[in-house]
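Task card 7
Instruction: Convert sequence to structure tokens.
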Amino acid sequence: MTDACLSRRAVIGFALLLASCGRRAPPHFEPLRYDYLTKLKLNVARIDTDDSWTPGGIDRHVEFLAPTPPLDALRHMGEDRLVPAGTSGRALYTIVDASIIRQGDNYRAILAVRLDILNNDGDRLRGIEAHATSTHAATDDDPDAVRSDLHQLTRKAMEDMNVDFEFRIRRDLRSDLEITTPTAPVPVPVDTQDLDAPGTTAP
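Output:
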């Protein structure tokens, strides 16, 4: 191999090295989960989820660009926090809205869920609806910046949603919550002895 070939290969290798050094690693975003929060145990035999929500209207929807789209985050909230603890009836957890809208230089999250308590025939007995909205400035149109902005926005909106969701359940569905308390210890047996009736004397 000639010195010219060696020199050419060295130049190419150096250029590739510079290119790899200048390439940024893509940012990593932790999935949004809520299993560390208080479990909400409902007095129902099962909990169904309706996550069929889809974007609508003429707004500029961008929720699909988020590392954890709000629809997934709301689904995780239901999976991680709601627990069936009864023997009859069922609950229906419905995702009503999971939007992130681009409005000028801002992103706006609009979240809503509903939780209905149903009897064995599927008739609605009572329920609650929880909401959360939040905004975040669009810092840049670079794809990584967009994902970072939407991740921060989704995380903040979901923090507010978890608070409102639990508050409304504890306030309006109190009778449907299973309250677990430590089991009381079994009393120690007490020896008993028959007593003579008043006014009698022992032989």
